[in-house]
Amino acid sequence: MKRVLIAEDSSVIQNLAKKILEFQNFEITAVKNGEQVMQLLDKEDFDILLLDINMPIMDGMECVKAIRQLSDSKKSQLPVVAITGNAKNYTDTDFKEAGFNDALMKPLNFDRLVDVVKGLTE
C-alpha cells in the first residue's frame, strides 16, 4: 500500500483528501505544518507528500526546499505536490523552481487529486 503524507492546516481539506485517497487504497498520515513533515520524514518513508503552501511555523515553500536538500537521496527525491489557494500568486514556475512535482488548486478537484497522486506513485 502506498503511503501519502498530507500537510494541511485546514482539517476540512485534510479529512476530505484523506477519505478520497483511503477509498483509493492509499495509507494516509496527516500533519498540520512543515516542521512536523520534516520530523516525520526523519523517521519514516512515504511515497508522496501533499503540501499546503500556506501553513504556520514552516510553510510549503520552505518545506519543499528543505526536503530537496536532505542528504538521503530517496527522501530528497520524494514526489511533492503543492496544495494552494494561491493567496500569494505563485506561478507554476515558482512551484517547479521550489521543487514541487505538481500543484493542485483549492478548492480541490478530487478527480485531479487522485490522478496526480496515482501518476506520481506508480
TrEMBL record:
Q: Fetch the InterPro entries from UniProt.
A: CheY-like_superfamily, Sig_transdc_resp-reg_receiver
Record-linked Pfam families = Response_reg (PF00072)
Q: Which residues carry this modification: 4-aspartylphosphate?
A: 52
UniProt KW keywords = Phosphoprotein, Two-component regulatory system
Q: Does the keyword Phosphoprotein apply?
A: yes
SMART domains, alphabetized:
REC
Can you give the residue ranges of the Response regulatory domain? 3-121
- Protein name listed in UniProt: Response regulator receiver protein
- Upper lineage ranks? Bacteria, Pseudomonadati, Bacteroidota, Cytophagia, Cytophagales
